[in-house]
Structures
1.
Amino acid sequence: MSANLNMSVTGNAPEALSIQQKLSSALGLAGLLIMSLSITDIGFQPKTLWLSLSLGMVAAGIVWYSKASYAHLPEGIKNDGVYFKSLTNRGLWAYILGLLLTGFYVVLYFYPSLLGLNSEGENTGIVALFDPLSQALSGNPASQWFVYGTLYTLAILGFGIKFLWKYRHNRYQRLRTFSVMFFQLGFAFIIPEVMARLNGDDFSLPYYNLVNIWPLNYYNFEQYRVDEFISAGSVGIGLLIFGVLSILVITPILTYKYGKRWYCSWVCGCGGLAETAGDPFRHLSDKSQNAWKLERWLVHTVVVFVVISTTAVVYSYLKTDQYWLSGTAFLISVATLLTIVFSWVMIYKRQELQKDAKYAAIGFLVLILALIGLHFSGMTDKIFVFEAETLRSSYGFAIGAIFSGVVGVGFYPIFGNRVWCRFGCPMAAILGFQQRLFSKFRITTNGGQCISCGNCSTYCEMGIDVRAYAQKGENIVRSSCVGCGICASVCPRGVLKLENDTPAGRINSQEVLLGNDVDLMDLVNQNQKN
Amino acid sequence: MKQEHIVIIGNGIAGVTLARHIRKLSDKRITLISSESEHFFSRTALMYVYMGHMKWDHLKPYEDKFWKKNRLELKQAYVTEVNTDQKRLKLESGELFAYDKLVIACGSKSNKFGWPGQDAKGVLGLVSKQDLEELEELAPNNQVCKRAVIVGGGLIGVELAEMLATRNIPVTFLVREPHFWNNVLPDEEAKLIDRHIREHHIDLRLSSNLDEILTDEQGKVKGVKIKETDEVVDCDVVGLTPGVSPNVEFLKNSAIELNRGVLVNRHLETSVTDVYAIGDCAEQREPIGNRPAVEAVWYTGRMMGETLAQTLCGNPMEYKPGHWFNSAKFFDIEYQTYGWVFPKPPEGHTDFYWEHEDGKKCIHIQYEKGSRQFKGINTFGIRLRHEVFDHWLTQKATVDEVIDNLKLANFDPEFYKHYENEIINVFRTQKAEV
């Protein structure tokens, strides 16, 4: 069709940057350039000055750019030209940025020495540049993770300010953004660093971001961490208990009341980056039914993987009988818990599950139980079929590094900003499972007001075809929905509202939309019930 | 028994809703004929493609495989004649196409009122996919199109103004009425939107009519002349948006009775057996309530499709739309309406108006004087629940009940500031004694 060809490629639509936008971009890039040059050890001294300059220029560049982009415009939706810009429409710049980001992640995860990390002696390069800040916070020299954490926090704060400007008319968006900025700066960055200051010869806590909950934090219950927790006395035990309660008690309660958004788009660091730095790429998510199918298989496979891997790792040190909980008791508790959850779903929520989700649940449960059975049938050194350590390290490599980092963030400009959250995050899958079956949260559709325009689906970062529900007058109750609220914001007719209400009537489906003959609606909806 | 073949001319919201519902209810053969586009798209969202919010494919509410999967046959063709005696359509290609039952759902076309120059190159409406393509060609940027003039202050006109503004093309907007959309909106809201349009740097000319469109030697637009002032405004594009009318030219020689649109009774049947009409192109012989005989609204097209599907599947049903509702967005300000609010309250009715101090939010309610029965509400910048107002209208609630319970109807996002208390106070002060 000719429309497909000529739309969006006229090339001189309003995408040109203003002078202020160009200058601010240059300022921010200059800040990054200082950082990049430090890799060559050309001797930026004093480091404190150059580091401040570099970070300051990046921050100032982002804030200035945001102001130049939005401050002079009336409040409202700011998506003009999104599909004309190379960077946000999978053009050349998108691929360049994607390559740079993936490259950065590969170096970060696999070649940190290139950044100047030196575990034997003094750091060099970029890592050394960050030493003064790390010393000030934790009293230790920087690591590549400190560099990454600082840049990550800077990105959430800087682009958070941009997002605040963009959505300044929307109080839900503003509060949500303040929240992710707060949790990143406080819980993910400053508190764990400062906690490290408390560590001494006879007291040591593992690096712990309290809101990074297992299974997102898949290594939380590894032996070295558990040992450290236990050795740190009541504070450590408290934190360990908190870690267990987080996933088993706190998370279910909050998800019941507010949906998984309380975590995914208000607290979580991955979500925080996606909602701020990743916001310009949210429309790139795949909305097809095939992508949805892939999502369900992948993300639930990761859940199974992380459950098996964590169970194996924990069992491998519990079975030495040095702890109050024995390995066998632990395995039995895991199996019991899984069976309780599974039975509850099958007894009470059977109808609400789609066909293939049901098959998957049955299949996976059988798999886990079979593997545990296998263990009891005689193997002693190995749990299940693999060494626990092999499972753990392959999870860490495939999921922790490649999926969440290299693909998850590196491919923002190509596949959108929530690839990891949608296809890979086991935490999101568990919360989503609960959101779908046991929560008060839904997106309400406003009667018959939908005009099927498609803004909601286009700007859904999770690739939910929101319109498919809205145009039928159905509420949206989907496990993947992170409750970012952008669908409701971009809707030009006031059709969508995120809310927590009684579970009854949450999932509705009517054949005839509100506004038509009352008798017809009654008739059709009666037929439907029969 | 032979499988009945239902042929629908038009693949817009009316025709497609009908087809989907027939498929749910039956196994009939269904063909949708359209020359405009291969697949159904949301006409109301054309603007977002030009503005770069979406691509063409995003406008399609169903994936392309949907049609085959549901056995909905699509035929890209233009119908030139309808022969109801032989139950055959003649297509532009010359092909003859047979039907058992025919549904005309061919929609609207832009109005033109015989202005000199109205067919010149550079003059367009904004109704079809082809209009969008033409606009992209004529107004890709502000070098090719140094200024555009829009004629007609309604919903499409303001959309076109918003579209052109996103490409920094200066726009002069001629509105016949004293204020924007004043033939539908009361003065207060109309003035509120006037201000907002001007805030977006649109050169809004109220009480201004088009006299003629001026063209150059090549027959291309070079400007327009305004009737009231004789002022000539130079421009490269003229958007004609003074409303739409049924697109029924091709039926002129058929046996089907026409007026402005295809005349139908309450069962959406035309004057010819086995021929029906729905959507923008249908004209009710007897208008329903306060509704116009021709309703060119997304929602009514959909409702007619839902209704006719019942009739065609053996459950004859009258088109009885429920309470009137509608919505739109004017640049950044959303508008919803439930029930009837007229530019001036009719005899025996009165109104209540509240506007926020920022001048961007307001509600306007009309109600009966004696009984105080609530008749309708316009809301700008505050979202309201359809279901609640539908209920109040059915229950014939009084204006006092509505005002007192306005919180129940609020549909703004969480954490938004609420204005109900302020509204209640203003209402009590103004209207308590009446």
2.
Amino acid sequence: MNKCNPLIGQKMREQVSRWFTAEPLARFTGMFIDDKLRESIKFGQLTVIHYKMFGGSGDEVYAAAAAVELFILASDILDDLQDQDAPAKPWMQVPQSAAIHVASSLLMLSQQAMMECTTDNKVRIALAEMMNTQLLQAANGQMLDIMNFAMDEQSYLEVVKQKSSALLTFACMTGVILAGQPQQSIVADYAAEIGTAAQLRNDLRDLLRWDEKSDFLQRKHTLLTMYLLESLAEGDRWILDYFEGRLSIEDIESNRERFAETCERTGTILYGSVMSRMHYNRFVELLDSLQEASPWKTSFLQILNQEIA
Amino acid sequence: MLKETIRQLVNSTEKMSMAMGGQLQLAGVSAAEQKALLGELNNKKEKNSGYAYMWG
């Protein structure tokens, strides 16, 4: 599926050239797209593969995949601006007001690109309705995540479903609808499983790191930090004291190895791996039950197992 | 129950060895949880390094 990346990139740039007539807007956006294309455009690839799975055969899908990726780029920029934890990214190296403006302009451009990807008005309306529904759901999930809202396992999984799974559903369902098919509930179901599996895998990575993206140092509620706090031995009391604000980061900054050892000893890492794998297994079961997916399964799994930046 | 099972496994090398060999009865753990747990334990055994972040 990697061979479709240049086509998706080309369509993204065409939209920018057409609609971003202000030179700085076009220039900054071009820089940001270049960075995006050097990494992963798996959401656009998911659009393309679903279009083919459900009988689509034209080139219009690359324009739709570009619309999806323009939204994902806007979302990445806003996420990094909110978290302030990705200083190497080009959008963190321009004036913040410019980065915010590019991101909000990309949100509109993605809508416009989606409207232009087909001349069939019925399909266009179905795409717009689905896009707005999924992206509003993702907006709710992102807000709950920013506010560290989830206080128990069930509410955390709900936030993940809203935040991560809605974007995956958006990418997959764009391909389904553009191929002329109605929305498929099984696609939404397996997209939710992929989103949850991927988020839990990211949570594992972010639990063990020891920098500004560390979920522990940021006192973030995730499935794993919640499990860890429930599993502490008497000698691990400092972890709870830090998480609840009784110790500062200066008090614990030399404890990285102790923390990693506690995560291993309590089974926190194993628990996260098992939960991620369980959702991935469920996705594969659902995919196997979908007849249309059979010839595409290998390519689908390859897209998902590309390294996430 | 999965959480309790994992706590028991990490606290007992004997139980962990039995689970990795597929010889431990995992009461109260659903079939889906059991499949994922054994998948991760086998992955660890084969790679002999931390639990997998990737599924492949």
